[in-house]
Amino acid sequence: MSFSSLLKKITSIFDLIKFSHTLFSFPFAVMSAFLAAGGMPGLKQLLLILAALVTARSAAMSFNRLVDTSYDIHNPRTAYRVELQKKIGRGSVWVFTILCVMLFLACAWLLNQLAFSMAPLAILIIFGYSYTKRFTHFSHFVLGLALGLSPIGAWVGIQGTLTTTPFLLAFAVVLWTAGFDIIYACQDLEHDIKSGLHSIPKKLGIKGALVLSAVLHLFMVGVLLAVSLYTELGMMYMIGVGIVAALLVYEHALVRPKDLSKINTAFFTVNGIISVGLMGVTLLDIFVR
């Protein structure tokens, strides 16, 4: 295989797994790492944590594409994934998945013993998510748990121990992720009904799902405020949380039960700003206090 062909295949795989969406969990892991270190973490630790995050998330998404092929092909929104798999080759996607798992385990091992001990559980959770829509309406929360592992893993990677703060950050991620994933799932309601898949929009209807999503995001803001009680984060962080709350209000204003046309803006743009913005003010607070 020529270098150009290999590069094209890798680019296609990154497109398949929506590599850019790593942005959603990346900032919380960075926040957790800096809080655990009380400032700038060691460069080696930080790079290993980021590599572990990227490889774990990549493995989870490529695995999801492999096991969901029979469902994706019947969904107009996801049918392109099957075409991409054919272009790449399922064998290559499997190789990519296994390689990412091996690299994730290697990063955990290089960090510390607790990180390496927790790694198999993390793999079980992030792979298990792909099957949850087959039997439960609460798959959105499992996705939240999968992303919520990032601040816990980052904290463990720095300190080699666990305390309250990373679990609060993880809980905030669970609420945030479940909330925006419920919004995103509204556009798949008809497909879920036809395919026998489960989701909150299918269980509660779109109106009820959007209400639940708003409640989850309200609680997320409360948890973010609670983080300041267990850290030395001050006014700058609190202002950041206020901005997050305003952005969440804007996100929910974009989506109506009878108008889902702005879901992509709500899902990608607003949540990207929330995660990166909160990370920014948190790091700024840490370094100026």
UniProtKB/TrEMBL annotation:
Chief localization class? membrane
A Gene Ontology biological process in which this protein takes part is:
ubiquinone biosynthetic process
Requisite cofactors: Mg(2+)
Which GO cellular component terms, listed alphabetically, does the Swiss-Prot or TrEMBL entry include? Answer: plasma membrane
Q: Which CDD domains match?
A: PT_UbiA_COQ2
Identify the EC number(s).
2.5.1.39
Keywords carried by this UniProt record: Cell inner membrane, Cell membrane, Membrane, Transferase, Transmembrane, Transmembrane helix, Ubiquinone biosynthesis
Enzyme's top EC category: transferase
Q: Which GO terms describe its molecular function?
A: 4-hydroxybenzoate polyprenyltransferase activity
Family matches, as Gene3D superfamilies: UbiA prenyltransferase
Keyword hit for ATP-binding: no
Q: Which residues cross the membrane?
A: 21-40, 46-67, 88-108, 114-131, 138-158, 164-184, 204-229, 235-254, 266-288
Q: Belongs to which family? A: Belongs to the UbiA prenyltransferase family.
Any idea what this protein is called? 4-hydroxybenzoate polyprenyltransferase
Q: What is the lineage of its organism?
A: Bacteria, Pseudomonadati, Planctomycetota, Candidatus Brocadiia, Candidatus Brocadiales
